[in-house]
Structure formats: structure tokens, C-alpha cells
Amino acid sequence: MEKTIQIKVKENNSITSQIWKSREIYLLLLPGVIWFLIFAYIPMYGLSLAFKSYQASLGIFGSPWIGLDNFVYVFRDPAFMESVWKTLWINAGRIAFQFPVPIILALLLNEVRLGRFKRTLQTIYTFPHFLSWVIVASVMINILSTQGLVNGIIRLLGFETINFLGSTDTFLPLLYITENWKSSGWFMIIYMAAITGIDTEQYESAQLDGATRLQQMWYITLPGIKSTIVVMLILTVGNLMNMGFDQIFNISNAATARAGEILDMYIYRITFQSAADFSFSSAVSLFRSIVNFALLLFADRVCKWLGSDGLFPSPRKKVRG
Amino acid sequence: MEEIKPASKKIKPGKPIQTKHNKGKHTKIQTLDVVLLVILTIFGLAIIIPFIYVIAISFSTQQEYLKSSLLLFPKEVTFENYKALFQDGRIWTGYRTTLLFVLLGVPLNLFLTTSMAYGLSRPDYPFKRFFIYFVVITMLFSGGIVPMYLLMRDLQLINTVWSVVFNYGINTFYLIIMMNFFRTLPLEIMESAKIDGAGEWRIMFNIVLPISMPIMATMTLFYAVDRWNEWFHAMIFIRDNNLVALQLALRSIVIDSQISQQMNASNLATDAKFSEGMKMAAVMVTMLPIMCVFPFLQKYFVKGMTVGAIK
Fold first, then answer.
1. Do A29 and B259 touch (CB under 8 A)?
2. Were B138 and a residue from A7, A40, A292, B239 both cysteine, which residue would form a disulfide, CB within 3.0 to 4.6 Å?
3. Which of B120, B121, B106 is nearest to A33 (CA)?
């Protein structure tokens, strides 16, 4: 990309001829650009409804501007602030109880020396990621119900049946455990890929120095994937406000609905379940986007301050969560 | 950038050195191995057993299910659950809608993603940087569901499959994986074709795509799975009972009836309609296609992930 600038400076007056020369490339980009404009950028502009009073007859563009009134209403709604704190609380727990699991799995699986066993496990671990939360929740609701498999084992061991699904006490562990069940194997793959990038000479010299395998794991493998861990962590923090909707929407029920009303659930409820006020919902969505972006920048700064590369020097490193 | 397997083999030749040099530590290494195997196997079983349980219930009678809660192998195998499920009809509607999502959606995904990824992977041209940012910004910000719903309504796509098809056109993450893959291709091939007078579109279709079959296969499978799992946008955009997506049909059979079960016991009529066996049969029917493509998917995604994540 640096080259682009140099060329531009050198032959600045021939920029139109350069564009003309690259016209076929622009033609390649055209379908994608049109799609992005209509289905990504127009909705982005649609968030301007947050500063408007939406009237169906006038549409997004024609509705009158009303300044910050919508935000005043939003912040007056106690359910809104409650859902913001709930989102941060639940998802901070995800960083504590979900984020490390794939790293540990990758470190352990990397030490397995039976190739076939390793591959089989890798296959098993990654499979649930490809199922939707509707399917996973259906399975979980069955095995965790009072009649289900887990309670069957608990009864067999002589303990009392636990109501995993209908109690607010078990709701958070339920979220973290099912999420780990579904996708820790998938994120493990990302770390496994990073591990293969580690220079093998490091291991050889460590072995000559008599390092045990645990020591190698701790002093070579873990530092070797540090940059990947940092990128994943920044992305997770930057996603703090929108994680978990699919999961909570499918796994919560009337008894746990309040415990699980994260911001996205709140947006869904006020937009599609009660009398819809699209301006109000847009204000909440915009607030969520801004907080997310601020969190991403904040996490990036903190990581840079701590001496890591951070995210923005190489936007190509991004991995979807 | 390389595939995972060769690289992990690279590590292995180092390992025998360890045993040669420190024969005394041999037993210690074996304990570590055993501990690893136990931990990892337990996690593996925790993932597999629920599936076995689901399969078992889907083939067993309601009486047997109620009698034993640790049912992993039904004594009498019955197909009644599947029969009842298909008679209910919702699954058929679901299959039809979701197949439409896949058949209309995946070609669109591939067309948009491939052409844009190839365009972005070309070496320097004016405003390339602008287009890269144009794409990356959509990863950082999105309008969310509310403006999207209004947009679909203004385009009059509500209650049609097209709303769901167009809503998910390009997955930026996949786009970047493809772009990085195209960047690794030798430029000389394209250059020589250009000298012969071929346009960029022709180069893409006739030269680049035939040598990119593995990544195309990966993308096809990824998009197909995403389309298969589509439920949220289908729920928001499509309210027509004749166009219910498969995942939502499953949801109405399993999750909604569970909620009504918890809400009021008087609603026993609906519960009797869907026995546990039938619900699990619905799960199986929804999951089966994913199970079928997973072995192919698995073959490629490690490579795809590595290209996208490390390059």
C-alpha cells in the first residue's frame, strides 16, 4: 500500500489515465461495492433515525430531525441501563470463563503425540461450531432438563435434581458452559494455526538444554502465540456489547428472561415485541455501536501500552469472532 | 501459511531428541501424556455423548424415554417419531425455505465475494486503499437490525426469501481470506494473459478460479452452512407461515413448546403433540446435512483459517 502513495506522487498528473487503465478492476469491485452500499452503508446511515422522529409515511430520509430527544428517553428507561450493565457483566464473565478455554485446549492438544487421536479430537471439538444456536439450545434443553441426561447422572450419584434451565442462579454458568461446548474447539483451531508458525529450532535448543515439555509449553509455545491471543482479546473486548444474542435468545425462557436481558435482547424486545418505536431502537443501537467502538480502541490502546502490536497496524489480521 | 499437518510434523522430528538425551525422564513424559489424554478425552466425550443421546431418543418410544433417563441405546428401535414429525408438515416447509436460501444465496455470495476479493487482491491501482477501508469499516460498524428491517420494508422484500438472501451478501471475514489467497497466486500468469488481451473478468473466470478450487470449495461450504443456519433474519423479515425457515420450524417444535411447558401446565395438549422423541427427531433432521458436509468442511477450514489469520 505504501507503493501506491509513491506512484501517485511520482505521476500525479496522470492519475486519470491510471484510473482509466484500472477500469476493469473497478468493474470487478462494482458488484461488491453496490452490495456494501445498499446493505451495509444505507443501514449505517439509517442509524441517523436516532436523531429523528420516525414517521412511516416519510421514511428514513424524510423524517424530521429532533436532536437528542430520543437519547433522553432512552436513558430515562430503567430497563435500558439495567440491560447495559447486564451485558457488560455477562460478557466480562465470558472473557474470564470462555476466552482462556480454547488457548488451554490448543496447548494441551499440541502436546498430544498420537497423530490420529489428535486429528479425531480436533474433528470432534470443532463440529458443534457449525450448528446454529437453535440446534445447540434444543440439544441442551433436552439434556439439561429435569428429565434429561445430566440430571439422570446426578440422580444416579444420589444427589438432588438441579433445575439448570429455569433458575437464575445457574443461568450464567449455563451460558458459559454451553458456549464453551459449542465454540471453544473452533477458536482452538486459530491458536493451533498460530502454534504451527512457531520456529521449531526453539524447541530443539530447549530440549538440548533439558527443558521439560511443560516448560516448553510455558516458555516457548505460549509466548509464541501471544500476538494471536492479543488480537483475539482485543476483538473480544470490542465485541463486548453484542456477544451472546443468539445463545440467550434460544436458551433463556420466561424464568430466566430477566437475568438474560442483554442489550440486544432489549433492542429485540422493544422493537419487535412491543409497539415499535424505530427512533428509540435506533438510538439504543447507535449507543451500542459507539460503546463497542470505544471498547475496541480502548483495548487496542491498552495492549499497545503493554508492549504488544495491537490491532490497527495490520487490519488484515482480523478474524471474525 | 502452510497447512497445519506438515508443520506439526516438523515439530515431531525434534521430539525424539528429547527421549534420546533424557532417557530418565521417559516415565515422567508418559504421565503427562496420560493426563493429557484423560482431560482431552473427557472434553471430547462431553461433546459426543449429547449427540448420541439425541440420536437414541429420536429412535425410542416415549415410554422408554420416560422410564430411563440414561438412555444411550434404545432397546426397541422405532421410526414413529420421524413419521409423526414428517406428518406434522412444518419440517417440509422449513426444508423448502432453507433450501431456497441456500440455492439462491450461495451463488450470490460466491459471485460477490470472489469478484470483490479478486479485485482487491490486484496490485496497486488508484484508490485501492480507499476500497480496503470501505470494506474494513463495515467490520467495525453496522447499522444493526432496526435500519435493516426498515430498508427491507422499503425495498418491499419483507415476507419474501429475497430479504434473507440479500441481507447476507458478503461476509467480510471470508472476503479477506479469499483476498489473501488470491494475493499468493503468481502474478506472471495474470500478466501474460493480459498481454494476450484478456480482460480482468476473463482472467478471473478462466485462469484464477480453476487454480483456486480448494478455496472456492471452502467458501461454498462455509456460505452454505451459514445459509443453512439462518434463523434470526428469517424470523424478523419473514412472518409468512408458508415460508418458515427450517431452524425456526425446529425452534417452534422444540423451544417454544418447552417454554409453554414451563409457563403453564394446562397447556398439556401441545406437549403431548410433540414427544421428546419427536423433538429430537426434528433436531436430527435439521442437523443431518451439516453432519454430511462437515467431513469436507473440516478438510479445508484449517488451511483457510491459517491463510486468513496469519498472512
1. no
2. A40
3. B120
CB contact under 8 A, B147 and A126: no
Dig out the grid coordinates for B120 from the structure: 482487491
Question: Is A57 inside any structural domain?
Answer: yes
Averaged pLDDT in 10-residue chunks for chain B of 311 residues: 38 38 49 89 94 90 76 80 89 94 96 95 89 90 89 93 95 90 86 83 89 88 94 93 93 76 48 75 94 84 56 38
B114, B204 contact by CB (below 8 A): yes
Question: At which of A28, A46, A67 does a domain end?
Answer: A67
How much is the pLDDT for B26?
47
Chain segment B123-163, per-residue pLDDT in tens: 888 899 999 999 999 988 888 889 999 999 999 999 999 99
User: Chain A residue with minimal CA distance to B295?
Assistant: A123
Distance CA B129, CA A253 (A): 47
Domains and CATH numbers, chain B: 4-78 (no CATH), 84-310 (1.10.3720.10)
Contacts of B162 in chain A (CB under 8 A): none
- DSSP state letters, A33-93: HHHHIIIIIHHHHHGGGGGB---TTTHHHHSPB-TTHHHHHHHH-HHHHHHHHHHHHHHHH
What pLDDT is stored for residue A75 in this prediction? 93
User: Is A59–B154 a contact, with Cβ atoms under 8 angstroms apart?
Assistant: yes
Q: A with B: how many residue pairs have Cβ under 8 Å apart?
A: 318
Query: Best interface-test mutation with B: which of A101, A105, A118, A135 has the largest number of B CBs within 10 A?
Result: A135
Examine the predicted complex and report whether its ipTM is higher than 0.90.
Answer: no
Number of domains chain A is built from: 2
pLDDT at B311: 38
Q: How far is B200 from chain A (nearest CA, A)?
A: 6
| pTM given for the model | 0.85
Q: How far apart are CA A88 and CA A90, in angstroms?
A: 6
Q: In chain B, count of helices (H) and strands (E)?
A: 17, 0
> Does residue A190 sit in the same domain as residue A207?
yes
What's the rounded Cα separation, in Å, for the pair A37 and A242?
23
Nearest to A72 by CA among A284, A267, A276, A265: A284
Beta bridge partners of residue A52, listed in sequence order: A65
pLDDT, position A227: 87
Structural domain includes residue A61:
yes
Handedness of CA B39, B41, B44, B48 (dihedral sign): negative
Question: Phi and psi at residue A52, in whole multiples of 5°?
Answer: -125, 170
Give the separation between CA A126 and CA A183, rounded to whole angstroms: 7
- Same domain for A257 and A269, yes or no, is yes
Regions of chain A with pLDDT less than 70: 1-13, 310-321
Bridge partners of A65, per DSSP, are A52
Give the per-residue pLDDT at B33: 85
Residue A7 lies in a domain: no
Per-residue pLDDT, B14 = 37
φ, ψ at B143 (rounded to 5°): -70, -25
| Residues A302 and A179 occupy one common structural domain | yes
CB pair distance less than 8 Å for A213 and B32: yes
